[in-house]
Amino acid sequence: MEWIEVKTLLSKNKRPEEWFGFDYNLNLYKGCCHGCIYCDSRSQCYRIDHFDVVRGKKDTALILEKELRHKRKKGIIGMGAMSDPYNPFEKEARLTKGALTLIERYGFGVGITTKSDLILEDLEHLKKIHENMTAVVNFTITSASDECSLKIEPHVSVSSKRFEAVRRCKEAGLICGIIMNPVLPFITDSKENILKMIDMADQCHADYIMTYMGVTLRQNQRDYYYKKLDELYPGLSYQYQRIYGNRYHCESLKWRENYEILKKECQKRKILYQMEDIVDLITSHKKEMSQLSLFD
């Protein structure tokens, strides 16, 4: 892993209501080695050269502590928007573990998005944060099949391990859900996969499933995705080009049918699926913990 120097770490989320109620964004690493064939962070607009090379940010503990100390508003710090905080290098670098220690110390909440069950090593830290503010864990899971996940996300925990991690996080009392994004047309958009995903989410007691029933493609990300499709699913990239052209948002041709399935099944199983309801769940816990702290 390479190291880079940075001056700041925390950034304000201008519209927290649009993304799980997270007030701040924090990325401790730059780049990602998960190898997901569809990753939007490869897009040219993010200006991340050599995206597959993971770079840790130097002196994150010192910088983050200074920023947390001077924040007047306590809130939920989102991690994992651009680079998974639990890439394989976290086992040695422990940047995420160090950040969680500081987040707990200064009374902030945390919202982590990951594809790795390595997060389970920090479960005790997350439980303590949740007791004082809020700890939210989002597992990105795109397929119910381990075989499929190994093809489209070759260097991460297979889907079954991620579902097991959801179960463990729920047993620990955390707010935990599944980001079923992207839904890849002709690959993961079958009725069978959607139903199986919902069933597995229900079995591990996930609080919610969030999805937009499609994939986003732009700039060099599209080129990379089509190259991988040619390797893994010969002929499929031609189908994409014929149907979607240069469109950014490429929704599944079955998105209406699949969303109705998601809506019906989630309502039946009492799993949240709309962002406003998910935000209400998260912010209500944050409000409750803030009120309790007044009496400590």
Overview of this structure, please?
The N and C termini lie far apart (43 Å). Helix 4 (123-132) links the parallel strand 7 and strand 8 (135-140). With 296 residues, the protein is an alpha/beta fold. The longest helix is centred in the last third of the chain and has 19 residues, at 275-293. A 7-stranded mixed beta sheet has the order 2-3-6-7-8-9-10, with helices on both faces. A 3-stranded mixed beta sheet has the order 1-5-4, with no helix packed on it. The mean pLDDT is 94. Helix 7 (191-203) runs parallel beside helix 10 (255-269). The protein has one domain: pyruvate-formate lyase- activating enzyme (Alpha-Beta Horseshoe). The chain is 42% helix and 15% strand.
Tags for this model:
296 residues; alpha/beta; pyruvate-formate lyase- activating enzyme; seven-stranded mixed β-sheet; three-stranded mixed β-sheet; 11 helices; 12 strands; 42% helix; 15% strand
What is the strand and helix layout of this fold?
Blueprint: E1 2-4, E2 10-12, E3 24-26, E4 29-30, E5 55-57, H1 60-69, E6 76-79, H2 90-93, H3 95-105, E7 109-114, H4 123-132, E8 135-140, H5 146-152, H6 159-171, E9 175-179, H7 191-203, E10 209-210, E11 214-216, H8 219-232, H9 236-244, E12 249-251, H10 255-269, H11 275-293
Parallel strand pairs: 1-5, 3-6, 6-7, 7-8, 8-9, 9-10
Antiparallel strand pairs: 2-3, 4-5, 11-12
Helix pairs in contact: 1-3, 3-4, 7-10
How many extended strands? Answer: 12
Mean model confidence by pLDDT:
94
Number of domains: 1
Distance between the termini: 43 Å
Order of helices and strands: EEEEEHEHHEHEHHEHEEHHEHH
As for the CATH topology, it is pyruvate-formate lyase- activating enzyme
CATH class category name: Alpha Beta
- The gross shape turns out to be globular
Q: Specify the number of helices.
A: 11
Strand content: 5-15%
